[in-house]
Amino acid sequence: MSQLKNILVALDGSNASSRALDYAINLARQSQGTITGVFVIPMISVNVAKPKSKLAKAFTEGGKKILSNAKLRCAKNGVLFYEKLLCGNEGFKLVSFSKNKKADMIIMGSRGRSNIKEIFLGSVSHYVAHKSPIPVLIVK
Predict the structure, then answer these.
(1) Rounded-to-integer distance, Cα 100 and Cα 19, Å
(2) Partner residues linked to 35 by β-bridges
(3) Taking the domains of the chain in order of start, what are their residue ranges?
(4) pLDDT for residue 123
(5) Which residues contact 76 (CB under 8 A, 6 or more apart)?
(6) Of the candidates 2, 12, 13, 8, the residue with the CA atom closest to the CA atom of residue 23
(7) Burial, 41: exposed, middle or buried (Cβ in 10 Å; 0-12, 13-18, 19+)?
(8) What would the CATH number be for the domain defined by 6-139?
(9) Contacts by residues 66-73 (CB-CB < 8 Å, ≥ 24 positions apart)
(10) Smaller CB count within 10 Å for the chain: N or C?
(11) What are phi and psi of 6, to 5 degrees?
């Protein structure tokens, strides 16, 4: 457990990602680690500082709110939390960011908020589990 100093958590506002954050908080507390919460906007290119379209604004504001709530939950549990808003293909962005951030583990929910993606049995978690070079904990 002691090597889990830098835990990345994929957050999307779903119940499963909330449970993933709970697991990350417990692991971070045990190993005196930090958590980086990542929200990926599923659009090719969005200027998160000044989103132009209504859809981009909605995703950006939603992501900021989810990350802010996660930061508060971590603070209440004595865990240092960093936040990152990304845009693009969710699975690819999570794996790529985890490499750049030198994360020790990725924790994520088994399924996100999209009902359409339910058909694909959690396509993002499936992608991350198969492409990540570091351990991935998928929480149901």
Answers:
(1) 25
(2) 7, 81
(3) 6-139
(4) 83
(5) none
(6) 8
(7) buried
(8) 3.40.50.620
(9) 66/11, 66/12, 66/13, 66/37, 66/39, 67/11, 67/37, 67/39, 70/9, 70/11, 70/21, 70/35, 70/37, 71/37, 73/21, 73/25
(10) N
(11) -130, 95
Alpha-helical regions (H) of 11-122: 15-31, 54-76, 90-100, 115-118
- Give the count of beta carbons closer than 10 Å to the beta carbon of residue 133: 8
User: Could you give the CA distance from residue 60 to residue 77 in angstroms, rounded to a whole number?
Assistant: 26
Mean pLDDT of 95-122: 78
- Residue 78's pLDDT band (boundaries 50, 70, 90)? very high
- The residue ranking higher by pLDDT, 43 or 138, is 138
User: Rounded CA gap, 44 and 34, in Å?
Assistant: 29
